[in-house]
């Protein structure tokens, strides 16, 4: 009799444990399903969110730049100013968000924008094939050229005999490649000019707008002068692929050109009217 009772008790315990195990497995499965559903919903939400919604949700437009006078540079109080910086600030105001300027390694601009470290590249960016294939870009807003800058005593020298400093990943670097010139890549166009001033490079290849602002009489580099123009180009602003901010910026450009804002900023920062493209 005792033996029979023991067997019955053992069987009851087995069924109880099996039931608990089944219940626990069911609960675990349901929890996993709920977690997966939540992750999927969050993923779908992120996929469905437009760039403008993303920017407005976080409350700021993060603009990738380099130190590039007269487009983006700091005033005596450490604030970013310039034709591009002022336009970016006004565009952010139109979106109802703050603007945040972040200095980037120009050679990594595509990586920065795809990683969402920045929301756009707005820094006198030449609309090259590489740029337009990797980003969705605005309409061109300014004309530019890549120009040789050398010490005055080298103005008439054969450029194929000179060594140049160029910004890594820039249109100046492409121009040096295309013309078969000897060059060293540096961090920025400003650094390229410093290399020439220090005598470590014979010349630099930089944007014409920067050369107009920083080279020659009455500038920081009075002993340097502009030489040969290597290529003509146009500037645009780059966003992530599929960004709805491109169309909004193009509309903003039209308004800013029509109401005279672009011309006013061009005059303020020494950019010729002929350089600003009608919208």
Describe the structure.
With 279 residues, the chain is an alpha/beta fold. Strand 2 and strand 3 form a beta hairpin. The protein contains 10 helices and 11 strands. The strands form 2 sheets. Strands 1, 4, 5, 6, 7, 8, 9, 10 and 11 form a 9-stranded mixed beta sheet that branches. It folds into 3 domains: 26 residues; 134 residues, Periplasmic binding protein-like II (D-Maltodextrin-Binding Protein, domain 2, 3-Layer(aba) Sandwich); 91 residues, D-Maltodextrin-Binding Protein, domain 2 (3-Layer(aba) Sandwich).
Under CATH, the topology of the largest domain can be stated as: D-Maltodextrin-Binding Protein, domain 2
Weakly predicted, low-confidence segments? 1-36, 41-45
Report strand %.
15-25%
Task: Supply Rg.
Answer: 29 Å
CATH class of the largest domain, named: Alpha Beta
The chain-level structural class is: alpha/beta
CATH architecture of the largest domain: 3-Layer(aba) Sandwich
Number of strands: 11
**Tally of DSSP helical segments:** 10
Total individual domains: 3
**Order of helical and strand elements:** HHEEEHEHEHEEEHEHEHEHH
Sheet with the most strands, sense and barrel status: 9 strands, mixed
Mean pLDDT: 88
How would you concisely characterize the structure shown here?
This protein has 279 residues and is α/β, with parallel strands linked by helices. Helices cover 46% and strands 24% of the residues.
């Amino acid at each position: 009799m005792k033996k029979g009772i023991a067997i019955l008790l053992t069987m009851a315990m087995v069924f109880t444990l099996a039931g608990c195990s089944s219940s626990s497995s069911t609960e675990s499965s349901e929890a996993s399903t709920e977690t997966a559903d939540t992750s999927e919903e969050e993923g779908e939400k992120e996929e469905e969110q437009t760039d403008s919604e993303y920017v407005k949700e976080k409350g700021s437009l993060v603009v990738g730049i380099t130190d590039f006078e007269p487009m983006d540079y700091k005033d005596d109080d450490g604030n970013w100013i310039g034709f591009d910086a002022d336009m970016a600030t006004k565009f952010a105001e139109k979106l109802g968000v703050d603007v945040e300027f972040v200095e980037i390694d120009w050679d990594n601009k595509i990586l920065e924008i795809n990683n969402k470290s920045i929301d756009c590249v707005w820094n006198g960016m030449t609309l090259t094939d590489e740029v337009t294939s990797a980003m969705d870009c605005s309409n061109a807003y300014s004309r530019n050229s890549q120009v040789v800058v050398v010490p005055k005593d080298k103005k008439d020298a054969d450029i194929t005999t000179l060594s140049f400093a160029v910004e890594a990943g820039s249109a100046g670097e492409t121009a040096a490649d295309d013309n078969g010139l000897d060059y060293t890549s540096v961090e920025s166009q400003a650094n390229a000019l410093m290399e020439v001033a220090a005598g470590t490079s014979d010349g630099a290849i930089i944007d014409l707008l920067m050369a107009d602002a920083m080279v020659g009489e009455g500038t920081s580099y009075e002993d340097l002068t502009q030489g040969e123009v290597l290529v003509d180009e146009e500037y645009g602003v780059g966003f992530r692929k599929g960004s709805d901010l491109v169309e909004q910026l193009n509309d903003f450009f039209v308004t800013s050109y029509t109401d005279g804002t672009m011309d006013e900023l061009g005059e303020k920062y020494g950019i010729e009217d002929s350089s600003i493209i009608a919208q």
